[in-house]
Design a protein that fits this description.
The chain contains 29 helices and no strands. By secondary structure, the chain is an all-alpha fold.
Length: about 650
């Protein structure tokens, strides 16, 4: 028989399962309901497509209630903890009551503008804000909560700060009214994106896992690259490119694919910190790899009013360059150490044929995104397609249990993403209410003295600091609102500024002192965390090099440029990446002499300078350095 504690734990687990499955079904139903004409569905108010004013509060309410079930105040077993568990249930009822008040709020009335919120509405708004910050502490981390609190405190007491930071101080009632009862704060664009496109693709990723499609992508990567020099590391890069784009989290991808790739890399001969760094750098790149690009690209589409299909094309060349850079470092490390490929790997064709049916949903979502269908509908279509695809072959066919598990996992994975976006919405709301964004833009322009390269350096530092505690998507949202206008004022196009900020927002995953993805990889590899972070930073230096080239060359495939200038800029960027790698690793075809390493550094400087003559000189010098090293290697073989 179950003990009283185990029985309570089992009951809470069943409630959480029902809540998670219910949330996923609700999220899937909303875009489908949009296909039906008005008054077609019975109970239209409940079953019909909900407008943002209702949909976002319902989503956040569901997320908060589910979060209080699966992220308890304490996980220990004691009488005191049992009392704390009851606080979680009290919190759930408080959130339900508060959400009901918010949903029944009369936005057409001007009473709240003239006389302020009623006591009940003020209490409801305060409960939702506090519950969101507390859930951020539990599911995302304490830094996320601190960031939200700091901005709320600033909105209340900005009037007592020095002039450079000062703003009008607002009463608590006005702050709550703005954050909760308008579409510009807590229930603003970030939570709307998380509740829409992001959730549908998180659900798609969950079903890739439960149907075996995710494992197929990993197996295909190993079959394609495993037999070559440094095979497991190269397979890790390919697998992370495929899975990281879907998972939406560099850390989650490091843990998922890294549990398989890191031991294989160590077995081949890579040092533990090298294995951890390779996996972290590859997994971080998954967030910038089309077609899905994690959650941030959906936010970018909303902020820049750019169709998602266009963003996929715009991001393609830089993403290919990044993974080419990581693969280059992996190859140079393997060649310098004399590593061989893996033996006994299955043929790539056999693996491909065995999982060919899983290419159908991947091809479908890519095509639909490029045809500019709604990302929400594309995610739903992809989820349905991967389930149907799994039924086509006997060895991948799933049943009701796997279906329920997929719905559950999708909702569970969405908790931290939605909460992070909700807190980011609070930050965006404070920026809008106080006008601090304009002050920050003026400060960046002033500190950079009008120099774009210096402004980019300041944004990179800000991205690193924010990323120490915020998920990449939340860091991007805050940075985009705070620094995007400054970069535009210095001459960058809107989409270029946002793409640069998006890339720099990923840097904290691999940059010391807080390299979260590298630390996750170090845990699997049994390596020193800081050494792993240094290796990851070296491998992922494209996160800094490539945005610099975005700013100073036509590297993004926008309407302003065609393929010819973009590919030309890609060649220049790739040459610079190789030159930097030669300088860092001291190896290309063979060991590189110190003079050639210094020459490679000069090549990088010439290629990044925005001048055609400089580029031609840099390309010529790079060709000379690479050719000399090649002939040196041939001479060594001959000797």
């Amino acid at each position: 028989m179950l003990s009283e504690h185990n029985r309570d734990h089992w009951l809470v687990g069943r409630i959480a399962l029902l809540a998670a499955v219910g949330l996923s079904i609700f999220q899937l139903w909303q875009p489908l309901a949009g296909f039906f004409p008005a008054e077609f569905l019975p109970f239209e108010a409940v079953l019909g497509l909900q407008p943002a004013t209702y949909f976002r509060p319902i989503h956040l309410c569901w997320i908060l209630c589910l979060g209080f079930l699966v992220y308890p105040l304490s996980t220990q077993v004691s009488t005191q903890v049992s009392a704390l568990r009851w606080l979680d249930f009290v919190s759930i009822f408080a959130v339900l009551w508060a959400s009901e008040r918010i949903l029944s709020f009369d936005y057409r009335s001007i009473e709240h503008l003239l006389n302020g919120l009623s006591n009940e509405d003020f209490a409801a708004g305060l409960i939702i804000v506090v519950a969101t910050l507390e859930m951020a502490r539990r599911s995302v981390g304490v830094v996320m909560t601190v960031v939200g609190l700091v901005f709320l405190i600033y909105s209340a007491f900005g009037n007592v700060l020095p002039d450079v930071l000062a703003s009008k101080g607002f009463s608590i009632e006005r702050i709550i009214r703005f954050q909760v009862f308008t579409g510009a704060g807590l229930y603003g664009a970030p939570i709307g994106i998380a509740a829409g496109a992001v959730f549908s693709f998180v659900l798609f990723g969950a079903f890739l896992q439960v149907t075996g499609a995710g494992q197929f992508l990993i197996d295909l990567s190993f079959a394609a690259a495993g037999k070559y020099r440094g095979g497991p590391a190269k397979a890790s890069v390919l697998a992370s490119a495929a899975m990281g784009s879907i998972s939406g989290s560099a850390i989650a991808n490091t843990v998922t694919t890294g549990s398989l790739t890191i031991p294989m890399m160590k077995k081949l001969g890579y040092k533990p910190e090298q294995a951890a760094g390779i996996e972290a750098a590859a997994s971080t790149g998954g967030q910038i790899m089309p077609p899905i690009m994690g959650a941030g690209a959906f936010v970018m589409a909303e902020f820049t009013k750019t169709p998602y299909g266009e963003i996929v094309w715009i991001a393609l060349v830089p993403a290919v360059l990044y993974f080419s850079s990581v693969l280059l470092y992996v190859h140079l490390m393997a060649a310098k150490a004399g590593f061989k490929g893996m033996q006994g790997q299955p043929g790539a064709w056999g693996v491909f044929v065995n999982g060919l049916h899983f290419m159908l949903p991947l091809g479908l979502i890519t095509a639909l995104l490029l045809w500019n269908y709604s990302p929400v509908l594309v995610g739903v279509a992809g989820t349905a397609a991967v389930v149907v695809a799994s039924l086509l072959r006997k060895h991948t066919r799933i049943g009701l249990r796997q279906l329920v598990e997929g719905l559950k996992q999708g909702a569970m994975l969405a908790i931290s993403i939605s909460i992070a976006c909700a807190v980011a919405g609070i930050v965006v709301g404070v920026i809008g209410q106080t006008g601090v964004g304009l002050q920050f833009t003026e400060s960046v322009v002033s500190l950079s003295s009008g120099q774009l390269w210096l402004a980019l350096l300041l944004v990179a530092i800000a991205a690193l600091v924010l990323g120490m505690g915020l998920p990449a998507t939340a860091a991007y949202i805050v940075l985009a609102v705070m620094t995007g206008p400054a970069l535009q004022e210095l001459g960058l196009a809107l989409i270029t500024a946002h793409m640069i900020i998006f890339w720099l927002s990923q840097s904290s995953n691999v940059t010391p002192p807080i390299a979260l993805a590298a630390f996750a990889g170090a845990g699997i590899a049994g390596a020193a965390p800081m050494r792993s972070a240094v290796e990851a930073f070296k491998l992922a230096n494209g996160l800094f090099v490539i945005p610099l080239m975005m700013a100073y060359s036509p590297l993004l495939l926008t309407s302003e440029f065609g393929w010819a200038p973009v590919l030309g800029a890609g060649v220049v960027t790739m040459t610079m990446i190789v030159a930097v790698a030669v300088c860092v690793e001291g190896y290309l075809f063979t060991h590189v002499a110190s003079v050639s390493r210094w020459a490679s550094l000069l090549v990088a400087g010439l290629l990044v300078y925005p001048n055609d003559v400089s580029h031609y000189i840099g390309l010529f010098l790079a060709l000379a350095v690479f050719a000399k090293n090649y002939f040196d290697s041939r001479q060594q073989v001959a000797d």
